[in-house]
Every structure is written in C-alpha cells, then in structure tokens.
Amino acid sequence: MKNSLRFYLQLTFTLLVCAFLIVPVVLSVLAGVTENFFVGLSSGFTLRWVAQVWDTYQMTIWRSVLIAVACLAVTLVVGVPLAYMLARHQGGNSRLARIFEELLMMPVAVPGLATALALIMAYGQYRAFRGSLLFILVGHVLFTLPFMVRPVLAVMQSSQLAVLEEAAASLGAGMRQRFFGVVIPNAASGILAGALMVVTLSIGEFNITWMLHTPLTMTLPVGLADAYASMRLEVGSAYTLIFLLMIVPLLVAMQWVTQTSRTRVRL
Amino acid sequence: MSVQLTRSSQPRRKRPAGKVWLFAVPGMTLFAVFWLLPMLRLVGVGASGPTGAMAYLAVLTNRHYLWSLVATLLLSAVVTVATLAISSSVGLFLQRNRFPGKSLLMAMLTFPLAFPGVVVGFMVIMLAGRQGLIGALTDKLFGEPLVFAYSLAGLFIGYLYFSIPRVILTVMAAAEKLDPALEEAARSLGANPLRVFFDVVAPALTPALISSGAICFATSIGAFGTAFTLATNIDVLPMAIYNEFTSYANFAMAAALSIVLGLITWIALALARSLSGSSVPATA
Predict the structure, then answer these.
(1) B26/A112 CB distance under 8 A
(2) ipTM for the whole complex
(3) What's the burial of A9, exposed, middle or buried (CB within 10 Å: 0-12/13-18/19+)?
(4) At A192, which CATH number?
(5) Is B228–A225 a contact, with Cβ atoms under 8 angstroms apart?
(6) Total number of domains constituting chain A
(7) In chain B, domain spans
(8) Burial B118-127 (b: 16+ CB within 10 A, else e)
(9) Do the Cβ atoms of B241 and B261 come closer than 8 Å?
(10) Distance from CA of B24 to the nearest CA of A (A)
(11) How many CA atoms lie within 13 A of A252 on its CB side?
(12) Bridge partner residues of A45 (DSSP)
C-alpha cells in the first residue's frame, strides 16, 4: 500500500515534468495553425502563417540544409580518419592522441560566442569569405567534429576490430586497404550515429551562427530568432513548426540507431 | 605481443604502423587554422584595448561586468541544482518501474533534446510570455496575468527546460548499471528507504551526477540563444559580451570577456572530469 502510494506520487511528478516539457511545444504547434491565437482556437485553423513563413524564410531553410549536408561531408572526410589515428596511434595509448581528443572538444566546451568572435577577428577582413556560407560552415564543422569523432572512435577502440585488422594485416593488407576494407565497414554504426548527430546539431546551431551570419547568409535558427523578435506569435510558431518537422525524422532515426546498436552489443 | 609477431613476419612493408599519424593531418590542420590560431589571436585582441592586459581583470574590477558574472554564476548554479534534483528523481523512477505508456513518456521527455537555445526561449515565451499559458491562467484565476518570461526568471525556466532531458538520460544510464542486489541487501539489514537512497543509490550515481551537473553548469554559463530570444537586456555575461561587440564595437573588451567566459566553462568541465574519474561526454 505504502509502495503503491510512492509509485503514484513519483508518477505524478514525472508527468508534471513531462507536461512542462511538452505543453509549450503543443501550444506552439497549435499557435502556428490558428487564425488568431490570442482569441483562441475558436478563431479557426489556417495554414496561412505556414505559407507566410515559407514565402519569407524559405531560403533560410534551404541554406541550413545545404550547410548541414556540407558539414556532414567535411566531418566525414576529416573526422573518420582522425578517429582512426586517435584509436591506433602508438598502439592506442598515445599521449598525442589524448591531447588531440582534448583539443577537439574545446569548441564544444567553450561558449560558441567565443569561437565566433575568434573567427571574426582572425578572418573577418577577408570580405568574400566573411560574407559567404563557407564562413558559417567553418563554425559548424568546428562545433560538430567531436560529435563525429567520438562515436566512431568508440567503435574503433572495440577489441574486435583490432583483431580483424590484425588478421587483414597478417594476410598482407596495407594500411589503406585495411582502412577502407576493414575499418570503415566495421565502424559503420558509429559513423551513422555520428552523421545523424552532426546533421541535427548543424541544423539547430545558433550560438556560433548568430555572430557569423550576414543578412544574405541567414540560416534557419537565425531566421527563427528574427521571426520571434519581429513577427507576430503565430508566424514564429509556424516557423517553429517547420523546424520541428525537419528534426523529428532525425530524432527518430537517432533513436533507432542507438536501439539497434545496443541490441547488437547485447548479443 | 601478437602485434610484434605480425610485424616481424612482414618484412616487405617498412614501418607498417608508422604512418598512422597521417590520418590526423587534415582534421588537425583544419582545427589549428580555424580554431587554435584564431583563439590565440583573440587572446591578443583582448589585451589590445586602452587598458592592455588589465582588460582580463575588468570582469572583477568593473562593477557592471562583475555583477553580470555573479548573476551568470548564481543562475547557472541554481539551474544545475534544480535540474539534478528533478532529473534524478524522474530518471530513477523511469529506470525502476514498468508501466503502460512508459516508452511514449520517455520519448516525450527526451524530445526537446534537439532544440536550439532560441527555440527553448520561444517555449518559455509560450509558457510565461505575454500571450503565454501561465499568464492566461493567472489572469482567469486572479484577474492579473503573471508574466515573467522576459527576465532572469524566464531564463531560469529556459535553462531548466534545456537541461532536464539531458540529465534524465545520464541518470537512467547510470542507474541501469546499479546492482539491485546491493539495495536489497541494505534493506534486508534493516535500512529504511531514505537510508538506502543516501548510502547505496546516491554514491553509485555521484559520478554521473557530477559530470552531467558540470555540463549543465557550463552550458548555462555560455548559452546565448535563450537569453537572446527572451530579452537583450537580461544581465548575464554572454549578453554583456554580445552588447559590447555589437552595440559599443568594443572588440578588445568583448574578446577579453569571452576568453574569461571560455576559461570558466572549460575549468568547470575539467574539474568535473577529474572528480568523477571518467570522461565527460559533453552534449552541449
């Protein structure tokens, strides 16, 4: 009896916390499709605000997708080999590799504002670079690189992969052959997890992007901030709704990847 | 040892493991060119103002910056304590009990994980803003709308919103590894639930709580998007840096303050790592 009372008390608390997290999301989604949120839902549903956002901010959405894809490409090309070095340098217990790992986390540990200011002070005078999407891409790559390297490194450090590589080496496979033929296929789960994380983070990145953007390189989160500040609540909500629709598939995919990789580990 | 064996059995290849450092060259070059060197330059810019290197002490000597720093640290500390308390009770509950609808509840609790700071700010406006839920409810109940989104209280709610899902996940992962036999043993020896919690459960969760608390603290100190969405005049250090840079074009002071801010978050994370003894996975 006493135990079940405790259960229901804890359940109520958990539901309250859940309500705190979800109610604003629901309100925002509703506001995005309501004629007049101040009047209430009785004013009727409409897609007018979504259409208005699409007209005004469409480019920010495409820009964010473009930057996320480019960011993924760069972190893949640069991050996967980097993780391999961190896992294998001097047989896996290299001081240098630990220092590199530590350094790579710095753009995440240090506030994005500092990273952005540093980039502006160092490269802001190159006007063409400063005004291009490339400038924002650099910031996103710095911020997301550790999220690619970490899961890939974790898979590469598993003992099983070292054994496979050794087998390949003993059969005469060179380093390049081992990397593309053994390491990459076996690290696929880590690469996939990292890739999803990189895309999700890049699409939502604001702290660095806000300082780096120009009116012509506005991304989705920057557009969101702009809409929240200058448009009516319904427009901001409709914009948020579009953002949510973009990240939900990514979140579902991430959930799926962690679940499948977890069951594989249990086996 | 087996590695030695394979190496010596392949005399055709020269130094088979010697070139692995080449794999790090593109990544570390990118990092050095676009982060390390600009950061060093930022340190220099910080000391280039009219007061020179003294700018780094301005955060302590200037009354305005000092107040921003104190407000930022206090807010972050309170957020961290509140988040840890809320999330560990929710996380433990979810890890211990099975009930219908649990996976749906889990999905809803972790949904806000991918929200950037700006969206979190908007969620606070939805709750406590001028047209928010709390305002509407209090208006109906007391005839006076309660609006607190555009202040430090709103920022507190925002950071709580941002941090709770993250810490719930960490607590659940840590509680999963907890051996239920230990608690049973304590209970069978006559310890009451409170005693079991503080003597058995809490010590086992401490490393996870320290590391996720540090991440929560560091992100609250450095977060910018939420404050920016709520109001540009909230007096926290990231907003002070932003205003220094954009409104007053005081680049040296902005640089010095952001270096100080970066040092604080970095120290918080490094301290937590040495205390908890494991690597802190930053999820900012």
Answers:
(1) no
(2) 0.87
(3) exposed
(4) 1.10.3720.10
(5) yes
(6) 1
(7) 60-276
(8) bbbbbbbbbb
(9) yes
(10) 4
(11) 7
(12) A34
Contacts of A62 (CB under 8 A, 6+ apart): none
Residue from B106, B119, B127, B244 to probe the interface with A (highest A Cβ count within 10 Å): B119
- Angle value at C-alpha B56, between A136 and B72, nearest 5 degrees: 70
Q: Which residue of B has its CA nearest to A204?
A: B116
Is A5 within a domain?
no
User: Which pair of tokens denotes residue A23?
Assistant: 């109610």
Query: Exposed (0-12), middle (13-18) or buried (19+): which is A116, by Cβ within 10 Å?
Result: buried
Say if A18 falls within a structural domain: no
Report pTM.
0.86
Nearest Cα neighbor of B174 from B213, B209, B218 is B209
d(CA B212, CA B277): 13
Q: For residue A164, is it within any domain? A: yes
Is the distance from CB of B159 to CB of B230 less than 8 angstroms?
no
- pLDDT single digits (tens) A182-203: 888 888 889 999 999 999 999 9
User: Rounded CA gap, A200 and A249, in Å?
Assistant: 10
Amino acid identity at B35: W
Cα separation, B108 vs B124, whole angstroms? 17
- What does the pLDDT profile of chain B (284 residues) look like in tens digits? 344 444 444 444 444 456 888 889 999 999 999 999 999 999 988 888 888 888 888 888 888 899 999 999 999 999 999 999 999 999 999 988 888 888 889 888 988 888 999 999 999 999 998 888 898 888 888 888 888 888 899 999 999 999 999 999 889 888 888 888 888 888 888 888 888 888 888 888 888 899 899 989 998 998 888 988 997 778 899 998 998 888 888 888 899 999 999 999 999 888 888 887 654 444 43
Residue A166's SS3 state is helix
**Is B226 in contact with B120 (CB distance < 8 Å)?**
yes
- Is A40 inside any structural domain? no
Residue A149 Cα distances to A94, A100, A102, B232, B274, angstroms: 16, 11, 12, 35, 22
Q: What is the CATH number of domain B60-276?
A: 1.10.3720.10
Token pair of B154, please?
Answer: 């709103």
CA dist A244 and A240 (Å) reads 6
Q: Are B244 and B62 in contact (CB under 8 A)?
A: no
- Chain A window 229-248: which residues touch B at a Cβ cutoff of 8 Å? 229, 233, 236-237, 240, 243, 247
What residues make up the domain containing A175?
49-266
